[in-house]
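A quick aside before the break. I want you to see a complete sequence-to-structure record at least once, exactly as it would be stored in a machine-readable document. Don't worry about memorizing anything.
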Amino acid sequence: MKHINIDLHVGIGLLKLGMNPEQMKAAVLQQCKELVPTGNHRLAISEDREINGIQYRRYFCNHLFFLIAFKGDSAVEIGFNKLIKDTAVISLYGMDAFATPAEQLILALKEFSSCRYDSDDELLSTEYEFDEIGIRLWRQDAFHPKLLLDEDYMNMMYRVIDDMREFLYFDIVAVRSKD
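That is the input. The structure line, written in tokens, reads:
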């Protein structure tokens, strides 16, 4: 299995902050070919939305998905989706970013940066930002074992509780440029 390090404020693998859209397109395609040597390497790009002058684009190649944010013609954030874990280990401070439980990853990253999150309960947030090291973590939904002690939660979620365990891990790990 291939190992790819997250280089803080630089990029992930072949994808580098500061690349323009054409450079990024070529880098995503090359990264896809390295990770999935056989198969169809057709690249699809979806321009999702623009928020505060930042244009977000999704790049799809084989089963891989990358989320890139551009300010003008320069990449300012590069995100890898958890689907990459089938072909590569994405390493952040020596931890597998997609196989390390969220709580453990957050605690380790707090040694290097302050953390902002999007909920009143840090353990049940879906997005975490570590500005000093330029890392953003996101998961579709939050789950923490403490929820298993909440009777109302268990009554409401009993049919899907096993599925909720996937939210112990992050869906997207992104690196950002320095502001």
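Two observations worth writing down. The first strand starts at residue 2 and ends at 7. The CA atoms of residues 18 and 117 lie 26 Å apart. We'll return to this after the break.
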